[in-house]
Amino acid sequence: MRLLIWLHRWLGAVLGLVLIVLALSGTALVWEEAWIAIPGADAAPAGDAKALAPIVEAARDHAPALDRITFASDGFGLHQAIYADGGGAYIDSGGRIAVQWQNGWERPELWLFDLHHHLLAGETGEIIAGLVGLAGLFFVVSGAFIWWRTRRTFAFRLWPKRFSRSAIVRQHRDLGIVAAPLLAVLFLTGAAMIFQPVKAALTAPFSDRAPAKQDGESRIEPGNPAQLLTQAASIYPAAQPRRLQFTEDGLVLRLRQDFEWTPNGRTYLRETGGTIVIDAPVGTLDKDAVSEKFYPVHSGKVGGTAWKLALTFAGLALAMLGLFTVFSFWRDPRDRRLCNR
């Protein structure tokens, strides 16, 4: 137990600042749609092919080298266009530019997303964030063992009763055990989206059925977004077009079927040289269907306001746990000793 306590304290003190960054940025992103103050953000989206095709053309006319366009949703009524040079724009349902930017630093939701997912350091930052998530699982498990010894003195407090070492330790211990189930979900889903072994472990009990793939029965004019949107509507009339990507090989259209939790869906229509290939789930509970739910659970894209509030509590609790851990540990040398307390 002495070694477990020592590891819990030292790892928490070293990784505490990163946990604070992940916690606060993630909490802000949960409510992203509520604080993006752009005219038209609360407008009702238009999801039919005839209405979306002019939006795509407006995005292409606005600037060269359109990389992708994410269509408006029920929670956010603007279309987001991203260009190859790093710039972008929000476009309203009439094809007008609501806001534009030259790089991601001009939009808080973009750099917050990069901060939370990549720590502003690309793939290296993503790996670091994933490792911190795995360390977070260790904190949850080890913290539960440590708390169990003192469970009879449990007293839930959001804030330490006073800023003494004993009061901070007690608040940390009791707040941590309350937030532990939610934090475990966040750490697990976050790590599973980054590390394949974690994903494989979580989906191991489910069948390994692959998504249905088939060649399209008809061709379209190569690189024609309007025809691809029309074709998608005929194949999946109930699905929502969510994102259109422009690749070197052709167009890729993502749709969201009713049973998919991911906001942008996992149903793909890939166009290459005019030929359409469909890559889509069929609604069975297989490995792909389970892993598809990691992101929406992690980010609060399902579960409504109640789940968002739960994630907000978890995020703020994690930030507070990390803050007081760093403060107490580096202020008091007793916390850095390997001793039995």
TrEMBL record:
Keywords: Membrane, Transmembrane, Transmembrane helix. It comes from Croceicoccus marinus. It comes from the Bacteria. InterPro entries: PepSY-ass_TM (IPR005625). Pfam families: PepSY_TM (PF03929). The chain crosses the membrane at residues 12-31, 127-148, 175-195, 309-330. This is PepSY domain-containing protein.
